[in-house]
Amino acid sequence: MSVKLITDYLDGFVTSDDFSSITDDVSLVEGTLSTGTCEGSDYLGWLTLPRDYDKEEFDRIKAAARKIRSDSDVLIVIGIGGSYLGARAVIELLGSRYYNDLSDLKIYFAGNNISASSIERTLRMCEGKNVSVNVVSKSGTTLEPALAFRIFKSYLEERYGREEAAKRIYATTDRAKGSLKKLADIEGYECFVVPDDVGGRYSVLTAVGLLPIAAAGFNIDALMTGARDAMEAFTSKDLTVNTPAAYAAARYLMYKKGKTVELMSSYEPDFVMMCEWYKQLFGESEGKQNKGLLPISTIFTTDLHSMGQYIQDGSRLMFETIVRFKKPVTDFVLQSDADNFDGLNYIAGRKISYVCDSAFAATLAAHVEGGVPNLVIEAETIDEHSLGELIYFFEKACAVSGLLLGVNPFNQPGVEFYKSNMFALMEKPGYEKITEMLREKTKGLI
Amino acid sequence: MSVKLITDYLDGFVTSDDFSSITDDVSLVEGTLSTGTCEGSDYLGWLTLPRDYDKEEFDRIKAAARKIRSDSDVLIVIGIGGSYLGARAVIELLGSRYYNDLSDLKIYFAGNNISASSIERTLRMCEGKNVSVNVVSKSGTTLEPALAFRIFKSYLEERYGREEAAKRIYATTDRAKGSLKKLADIEGYECFVVPDDVGGRYSVLTAVGLLPIAAAGFNIDALMTGARDAMEAFTSKDLTVNTPAAYAAARYLMYKKGKTVELMSSYEPDFVMMCEWYKQLFGESEGKQNKGLLPISTIFTTDLHSMGQYIQDGSRLMFETIVRFKKPVTDFVLQSDADNFDGLNYIAGRKISYVCDSAFAATLAAHVEGGVPNLVIEAETIDEHSLGELIYFFEKACAVSGLLLGVNPFNQPGVEFYKSNMFALMEKPGYEKITEMLREKTKGLI
Q1: How open is the CA angle A44-A45-A46, to the nearest 5 degrees?
Q2: Between chains, do A114 and B355 touch, taking CB under 8 Å as contact?
Q3: What is the pLDDT of residues A271-296, one digit of tens each?
Q4: Within an 8 Å CB–CB cutoff, is residue B444 touching chain A?
Q5: In terms of DSSP H, where are the helices of B72-215?
Q6: Of A144, A328, A413, which is closest to B116 when you measure between CB atoms?
Q7: Where in chain A is the domain with CATH 3.40.50.10490?
Q8: Rounded to whole angstroms, how far apart are CA atoms B128 and B126?
Q9: Confidence of residue A237 (pLDDT cuts 50, 70, 90)
Q10: Taking all residues of chain B, what is their mean pLDDT, rounded to a whole number?
Q11: Is the pLDDT of residue B187 over 80?
């Protein structure tokens, strides 16, 4: 099986008639995607990437990963937004949020904030360790990663000398242009490519995501095979097969009928960063022209003890989408206890997965009854192949969903606004005109 | 200064006339809080806790923390919801999300999910280490912590023998009744109290939060002093002094005027779990009777590169509340670079905090212009005293806010719903009546 979608728990909020009513629109949108005639069509590289990816570079990624694992205790991945979220999400789902505690190679993500103490602490964690750096930035001038790279570059050069430092720095950047590419060529960093036709939030299956994932010891061949299997499975016009299109349709119908929030959740504690990846993917793709479902997330059962009350009984804004993995990675049987102080003996002899499955079904029934329609996305298990399928599923669903909504799912014009303001406040050449106005507006704040 | 509130950036969405119009309501609500006549008044222990806490127990907490630090490499804190969120939030804010990488004592939070692989991995991280356990559960029968404690108890007993294991288990539970208290008395675990009049989400300044925080090496005296200073400062009728009441009023006005979502954010990368704590506090307190602002969170500038587009330009559902720490814990000056490949030399010689402050002011101006009213909560710095103030600020604000909304901010009736369903599906004695109905409803799911 590939990724399944269960739409039986929409509780009459969205009906099969509703689905029928937009089948044509979905087909139309899918057509413009596959013919490359949709809005934002310069950024459709992800669509066929699982088949058309650069095999020579792929081998170099694996070789670089082997080198990092052989000569480093710490890998610093410098990047922000799409330049770190996918890698971190995959590593934490496959290797758990305790990845660094359980692995020989520690991976720290830097350059995604503006915090001196964060940088100082990351440097402290490098003390006495062998360190490599993967700097991920298409332009090389994005503020946060540039700031961090300036610091880590000089740290490596001080520790190893310029020549050896250069062998420990891997640049994932533009193929030909930009300041990081220029620097990398001069210093002799090994380079990997952020393709022109793949936006940041769609880039996890390019070198952007693949190098850190491979360095973490995961099988990127299986990841790509999973994505390719999904790519081939999801071309059908039949929405029971083309599940990402069906998911996009369900989201769109929910939105049109007044739901404003999609709550993504999973019973897998290591799915936290996958939720963050999902939020960027959908939030940045759809949140424009004052439109779009607000993507939020929880982890169950953890957050049933924090947001559970609100979901069950608060403002009726949301529907839920549960990502479920059919087969647990590990399982064991709960032992009986002679004293039974905790009263759990009624489930002694049962597997933990049985308890989790019961919680899942129970919660779904409770939330649906509370007026929260539920969608379930079902993946096979937590491994590279299954995750490759899931990633492609979400990417495809997001594109279809954005196009149904009538927005360009591949741009992010709103992100520039705060940046211009920031450059103006910091007197960056070229932004002087609005500096005074902004100082006036924000006086008293800083 | 104590915690400040800046209301100058509500962009005309909420005016000073609006504030004036509810001053009386706020006073009324505050009166019912201080006289203990509000709804849920059995749970007002947190209100005077910073003054009236049990000093003898407080000393025992510090002694237990010293013992844990002297005889353990790993502390497993078993608890869910309010029984772990506050402790984890404080430890990660004071000690950073890299706390475990930088500290001799590693603290892992267990019993907050139903995952065999999570338990297996946590056990693996205990291999060859000296381990203590703090189990936090008022009743001792909540499913997730009971499940984990059954496993970690037998693990400790196998490793250390029953007697030594008992010296390594600390039970934070009911003062007198419940199954965990009973077991603790029989086994001789040292016990700490979850007070009857303090709900889980308000319990961070009881033994629930204090023992893990003290074990992590933080100064809980300063934390309590901060909370007490806040408690004393926030009794004024003047909303410019009583900032939590002003914050509650602002939230309420925003909600009444159609905002449905509060986005909590901070430029501090280690504020992630404080946001989770805030979500439980407000979500569980207000999300009832189909009412309440939906609490969500981001970290800036990190998430400006994921949710920034949506905030700037997506559906106009939200207002933002930024928690800002005036004085950075660490700071340094960005060095000039001869080649200036990254183009950052225009800020060479500037401190990192200057760059962060600029990003903060710039983003606020951009979002306000995009139709997102902003509130700013200003704390002094990231230390125990300041955090004690901030915690009390949020607790007080939440109570006032819930009462203004007309709900009981101290109960969580909706949380029971999925639990009954779950017990029924698992055939727990007493729930048989709805088992068949639920099986029918959820068939095909599991």
Answers
A1: 90
A2: yes
A3: 999 999 999 999 999 999 999 999 99
A4: yes
A5: 85-95, 99-102, 116-126, 143-167, 179-187, 207-215
A6: A328
A7: 4-36+239-405, 53-221
A8: 6
A9: confident
A10: 97
A11: yes
pLDDT score, position B1: 65
In contact, A329 and B117? CB cutoff 8 Å: yes
Does the annotation count A385 as an active-site position? Answer: no
* Residue among B102, B267, B413 minimizing CB distance to A121: B102
Q: Give the residue-averaged pLDDT of A32-36.
A: 95
Domain boundaries B53-221, corresponding CATH code: 3.40.50.10490
Residue of A nearest to B7 (CA): A445
Give residue A238's pLDDT band: very low, low, confident or very high (50, 70, 90): confident
User: For chain B, how many residues are written?
Assistant: 446
Contacts of A106 in chain B (CB under 8 A): 101
Angstrom distance (rounded) from CA A286 to CA A18: 21
Would you say B203 and B86 are in contact if contact means Cβ atoms under 8 Å apart? yes
Instruction: Answer whether A299 touches B (CB < 8 Å).
Output: yes
The CATH fold of domain A4-36+239-405: Rossmann fold (3.40.50)
pLDDT of B237 above 90: no
Tell me the chain A residues in contact with residue B260 when contact means C-beta distances shorter than 8 Å: 260, 315, 317
Once rounded to an integer, what is the mean pLDDT over residues A17-27?
Answer: 95
Q: What is the mean pLDDT of residues B1-5?
A: 88
d(CA B163, nearest CA chain A) in Å: 17
Encoded tokens for A126: 């490098």
Asked if B445 reaches chain A (Cβ–Cβ under 8 Å), the answer is: yes
Q: Phi/psi of residue A281, each to 5°?
A: -55, -55
